[in-house]
């Protein structure tokens, strides 16, 4: 039986409802609710080992959920993996390749595998990515292999592209080209993308929505615009250290101090805190937009995720 996908009827191309994954008795993901809007780029970030790859593998049907439900285009995926892989393409550095194949052999193989294979698109991509058609795949560099994976993925004309740390190993010029291709594809074809990465500045440039995982739990999910309008950085300059209790407010996510300059990340209205800071002796209080990277760090710190530097003697 094949699933009859009807993209036109759904606004979320991917939905996970209370999804958990247990491997060898270890809870890898717990009660994950995650939704990807049609035609959007959804960034997936988190600490190392948070469960990003596992979530992508669940969506692509590599893994089966231990509990909960995964819907692709509104349909539960459980027993239709082959059909899903025609429409939901996972690109990751450890994806299987046939190292003895030449680039052109792989393209031929992919053309037989994918129903919607676009030969013209494949040739164009190989050309712009400057990939050597006659070279065995085992002789390609890490970055070239990733570019080949992207070319195969885009030429297979998926509805959803799952990218697992796709820009690892790419030089800055190729990385920019790679991101440009993704954005172009989303704008031109309505492709939806889930983009797992540690490069938060890349996500700020391309993502519509961002979800943050920490130790198998979803700690934040929403639109990048929404985060930017809700979270702000308050910077206070004071001649003395502002007492800890002044910063203690439910809206304050994290506080940091650099001598006379102290700052914090605030969720929501900043007016109460600003007044408290002035009362506590701040001579200058300023509010500025937040970078997602700073919000991410503050969230991780709040979750208790910190690392000390290794001191070498
Ligand atoms: N097949 C497996 N068997 C046992 N444990 C696994 C397996 N796959 C993943 N894990 C564990 O699940 C957790 C989440 O791993 P996952 O690769 O999904 O995280 P990630 O967020 O992609 O990490 P990173 O950013 O470091 O790539 C880790 O603790 C990992 O060791």
From TrEMBL:
Q: Which domain of life is it from?
A: Bacteria
What UniProt keywords are attached to this protein's entry? Answer: ATP-binding, Nucleotide-binding
Can you give the residue ranges of the ABC transporter domain? Answer: 14-240
Q: Which GO terms describe its molecular function?
A: ATP binding
Entry-linked SUPFAM superfamilies: P-loop containing nucleoside triphosphate hydrolases (SSF52540)
Q: Name one Pfam family in it.
A: ABC_tran
Q: Does the keyword 4Fe-4S apply?
A: no
Which InterPro entries does this chain map to? AAA+_ATPase, ABC_transporter-like_ATP-bd, P-loop_NTPase
Q: Does the keyword Heme apply?
A: no
- The name under which this protein is listed is ABC transporter ATP-binding protein
């Amino acid at each position: 039986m094949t699933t009859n996908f009807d993209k036109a009827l759904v606004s979320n191309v991917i939905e996970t409802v209370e999804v958990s994954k247990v491997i060898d008795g270890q809870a890898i993901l717990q009660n994950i609710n995650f939704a990807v809007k049609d035609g959007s780029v959804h960034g997936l970030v988190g600490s190392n080992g948070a469960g990003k790859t596992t979530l992508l593998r669940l969506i692509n049907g590599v893994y089966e959920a231990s509990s909960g439900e995964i819907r692709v285009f509104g349909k539960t995926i459980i027993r239709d993996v082959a059909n899903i892989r025609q429409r939901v393409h996972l690109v990751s550095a450890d994806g299987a390749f046939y190292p003895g194949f030449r680039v052109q052999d792989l393209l031929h193989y992919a053309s037989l595998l994918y129903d919607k294979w676009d030969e013209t698109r494949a040739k164009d991509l190989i050309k712009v990515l400057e990939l050597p058609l006659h070279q065995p795949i085992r002789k390609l560099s890490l970055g070239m292999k990733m570019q080949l994976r992207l070319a195969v993925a885009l030429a297979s004309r998926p509805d959803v592209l799952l990218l697992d740390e796709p820009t690892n190993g790419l030089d800055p010029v190729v990385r920019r080209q790679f991101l440009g291709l993704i954005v172009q594809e989303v704008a031109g074809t309505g492709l939806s993308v889930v983009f797992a990465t540690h490069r938060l500045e890349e996500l700020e440039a391309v993502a519509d929505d961002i979800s943050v995982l920490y130790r198998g739990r979803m700690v934040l999910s929403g639109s990048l615009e929404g985060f930017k309008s809700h979270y702000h950085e308050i910077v206070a300059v004071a001649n003395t250290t502002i007492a800890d209790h002044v910063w203690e407010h439910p809206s304050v996510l994290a506080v940091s101090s650099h001598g006379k300059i102290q700052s914090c990340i605030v969720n929501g209205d900043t007016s109460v805190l600003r007044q408290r800071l002035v009362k506590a002796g701040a001579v200058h209080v300023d509010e500025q937009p937040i970078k997602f990277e700073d919000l991410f760090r503050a969230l991780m710190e709040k979750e208790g995720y910190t690392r000390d530097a290794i001191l070498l003697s």
